Amino acid sequence: MLRIENLEVAYGKAVALHDVSMQVNDGELVALLGSNGAGKSTLLKTISGVIQPRSGSILWNDQEIHTLPSHKIVALGIVQVPEGRAVFPELTVSENLRMGSFARKDDTAVTGDMKLVFDLFPRLKERRRQNAGTLSGGEAQMLAIARGLLSAPELLMLDEPSLGIAPVIRDNIFKVITQVFEERRITILLVEQNAKLALNMSSRGYILENGKVSLEGKGSELIDNDYVKRAYLGY
User: Fold this and answer.
1) Phi, psi (deg, nearest 5) at residue 71
2) Which residues are CB-neighbours of 83 under 8 A, at least 6 positions away?
């Protein structure tokens, strides 16, 4: 499905990603872990077309996409929910959700998906006429994920969905992520600071350190790895 080969990304002379190779297969939930500054968000932005790589390739169903603009990548079914939520504060919750579906032509399917996300996140339905700027951090994260789902993704990339939100809201959001993965069969690439949570729910995982992939394996294997335990799980 998604294949990354020997990817290098730089900001001027500073190399952010070096010789990164990885893949996300259809029907997987893949965790991408690493410390702050490891290059995780840079990788997602490069897949999304926001950043252009210096070398290497990104393939989606064997089609090279690393030279495509972001809107064409979204049209292929690759959707990113960015770190920090990035909702449109002056638009209502419903208007934000409609922004997620702007490229879709089937109004009936969009209406059905709108009902789906309101069922997944009842709080958004209650606040659908509120401006997004009035939402709490957890509610804004719900909205960002729901907006991503309105794009009808084949691959949903989530960048730090638990960052800065209360544990009870985090648990609700991850319950929804699991439900979407298991029931809707949406393939997910998850960047998450809570390594234990991410690895427990993932099919496979990658550890990114200093812009390079240092470890990869099944989620269950990584959670039992001594180095991962020390560096990411705190024991």
Assistant:
1) -65, -30
2) 41, 159, 160, 163, 191
Q: Tokens 């259809």 sit at which residue?
A: 26
- DSSP category for residue 231: I
User: What is residue 104's three-state secondary structure?
Assistant: coil
For 10-19, which contacts have Cβ atoms below 8 Å and span 24 or more sequence positions?
A: 10/54, 15/211, 16/42, 16/211, 17/42, 17/43, 17/46, 17/53, 17/211, 17/212, 18/211, 18/212, 19/56, 19/212
The model carries a pTM of: 0.94
Predicted confidence pLDDT, tens digits, the chain (235 residues): 999 999 999 999 999 999 999 999 999 999 999 998 999 999 999 999 999 999 999 999 999 999 999 999 999 999 999 988 789 999 999 999 999 998 888 889 999 999 999 999 999 999 999 999 999 999 999 999 999 999 999 999 999 999 889 999 999 999 999 999 998 899 999 999 899 999 999 999 999 999 999 999 999 999 999 999 999 988 7
